[in-house]
Each structure stands twice: as structure tokens, then as C-alpha cells.
Amino acid sequence: MSFLVTKGKENMLIEFLQSVYNPKASLPSESKVYEQVIKDIEYFSISPQVYFKLKEQGRLELTPLFFQNRLKNTFIKVLLRNTFLKKQTETILNTFDKLSIPAIPLKGVLFAEKYFGHLAARSTSDIDLLIKPEDLDKVIKTLKEIGYTIEEKNAPDHFHCSLSKEVSNSPIPLTVEIHWNILKENTSNFKIEGFWEQAIPLENFKHIKELSAYHTFYMICIHAWRHNLDSMKHFLDITEIIYFLGEEIDYDSLFIDAAKHKMVKRMKRTLSIVYRAFPQLNTIQKLPFNNQVGPWWQYEAIRNSNLRNVKVYLDYFDYLIFSFDTANHRLIAFKEWIHPSKYDLAQELETNEKISYANLYKKRFFGLFKSLLFLK
Fold first, then answer.
1. Domain chopping of the chain, boundaries
2. Given this model, what pLDDT does residue 373 score?
């Protein structure tokens, strides 16, 4: 089977990843395919996932040597980085535990070890922790005492904040992102308390826990939705958990809970798009619905952030407005888009633009105009 013939260039990575996650499928034979997919793999920072999966299957040697070397070099760098992050995470968790501060690590190195099978099988850049809202001041004070003294500017209406510290021999500070929720509360009925109630004690800690497998999957899906599946990393996170848990994932319970939380459409959108990219997931755990959603999501748009076409805008508005279960939540989301907070306004505009609502609306209008002008 020729990847170059059966798929357009823009779909080559997805087809390649489908073959990686199916040991019975043939890997491509054309060197040109590997020259293209390695660029995409590195763009999305998924080299460690691909390297470890192929190595685990004994199929790495079936790929060209230059491809193997690029994957391996990145894997080694991630191993060094994640080893450092693991030690830093353990220091924080031990400190919290001694001070009787409850916390739950999110994603990160522990997630890589458990669900991907190796410390370096998934890259991560910071430390994410879930804490209880009433402990926020104590957590910030504690982190500052152990060196995380740089306060990041965060949106006042969001559900997380960040502290960082300088790292020797590195131009990039180490950041701890503190979460007291996993999404904004004004567009759902979600309550984080359920995550805490079913969390499992972590190793020998008294006050540190880990999310249950069920809530890990729930959280990863919501995290992917929040980013509108803008990276193949989200796809592999969800795919890896499904492969790891198999039939343990209870989709009936998932959608019962999503209905209570008014998040059914978010779950359907996320899983529909992932299952379309990786249809073999149906052989592991079939989706409990037939009406596929998110039809305008396109790989080209996440590979090229400058791409502007009608499908980009259709997908964005589908995500922005129609991801919500209730008219009230849709209205809130639309109002926040029309008149974002000053923080979100600054995030959406380029840094060299004057931060104003007039410039925001001008940017949006001309972006849409250009997409219609060059409509094919």
C-alpha cells in the first residue's frame, strides 16, 4: 500500500499513526513518506510516543535509519527532561504531604509512566497539580518557599494559576500549573468534588492521590476539547488510554455523567473526531452513539496555524457555540467571544498589535473575508 497514492500529503501522518497503533498493519516503504511524517511528528512533539510504540512492537528497525535516529535522539532528550521533572514533582508532593495539603498530579510524568508505559514515552514541559480551592493560598505560599517565586499572569476568571522558577543551564523556567478545576464553571454543571471522591491514594503518601482511570479518561477528553483538538498529542493521549483500559472504559457511565454535567456535546465532539482519525478504536470500545459530530475539523488547520478557509471558521463556530448542551451555556460562550476579558483579548491579538477590541474585530473580519475571497 502506497501512502503517497492513497492519501493526500495532509493526511499522511494520520495514516502513518494508524499503522503504528495497529501492529498487523504494514508500515510505509517509501522514504519520502518518512521524510514528510518526521516533520509532522516533530511539529506536534510526539516523537517519544512513536519511538516507544514502534520499539515496543519490534518494528522500529523496519523504518529508515534517519527516521530511527531522529526519534531516538528526541526520546533521549525527553528522558533527561522527564527524569528531572519527576524529581521536581516528587519534591513538591513530599512537601505537600508533610504539610497535609491534598493534591492530585495531572498528566505529566506519572501519566506517561502509567498509560504510555515509560517515563519518556510522552513529553511534558511543566508540572500540573489539582488542589482544593480552599488550599490555594497555602499552596502558593508553599511553592514560593521552595523556589517557585515567579508568578505568571493568568486570566482572573479561569480555573488555574501558575508559578515558575529559574532552572540552571536552561533558558526556560520550570512551571507548576495549579488547578482547582478542569474547566470554567459558568458553561457546565460539572463539579470537581466527584474526582476527589473517587481518587486513589498514590504510593506511600497520606494526602496525595491520583485520579481513577475513569476520571483520567474523562479529564483527558475535556482537556482535548478545551484545546479544540489542536494537536495530535491530544489524539494519542485519548487513543493510548483506550488501548490501555480497553473495555474497562464505561461509555454508558461516561455519558450519564456528561449529561448531569451538561457536557454531552463536548464528549461527543471530542470522541467523534478522534474515532474518525483512528477508526480501529471501534474494535476495542465502540462509541455508544451513531450521529458523528465535529464534521469540519481538519488536520491541515492544526498543522498550519495560518490556514484560513471556510471549514476553519465553520469548525471554530461549531466548537465555540454548538459544543454546549444548553442555550444558556451557548449564550455565555458567545458573549465571552464577542467581548472577551482583557486577558483573553491580549491572548488572541498578536503581541505587536495594539490591545483593543477594535483591532480584535478587525482581525476577525479580515480573516473571514480572506477565507471567503479565496474560497475554492
1. 212-338
2. 61
Question: Degrees (nearest 5) of the Cα angle 130, 85, 157?
Answer: 30
134-166 b/e with 16+ CB inside 10 Å = b? ebeeebbebbeeeebeeeeeebeeebbbbbbbe
pLDDT given at position 203: 86
**Average pLDDT by consecutive 10-residue portion of the chain (376 residues)?**
46 94 92 96 98 97 97 98 97 97 96 97 96 96 96 76 91 94 91 96 94 97 96 98 94 96 97 95 91 90 88 92 95 90 77 76 75 57
In the chain the beta strands, taken as DSSP E runs, fall at 104-106, 127-130, 150-151, 160-165, 174-179, 200-201, 209-210
Rounded Cα distance between 23 and 4, Å, is 20
Cα–Cα distance, 360 to 32 (Å, whole number): 41
The amino acid sitting at 307 is: L
> Helix %, strand %, coil % for the chain, to 5?
60, 5, 35
Residue identified by cell 517509501 is: 30
Cβ neighbours of residue 114 closer than 8 Å, sequence gap 6 or more: none
Question: Is the CB of residue 54 less than 8 Å from the CB of residue 63?
Answer: yes
Cα(332)–Cα(13) distance, rounded to whole angstroms?
36
Q: What pLDDT is attached to residue 363?
A: 79
Phi/psi for 255 (5° steps) reads -80, -20
Q: How far is CA 179 from CA 71, 127, 343, in A?
A: 32, 11, 18
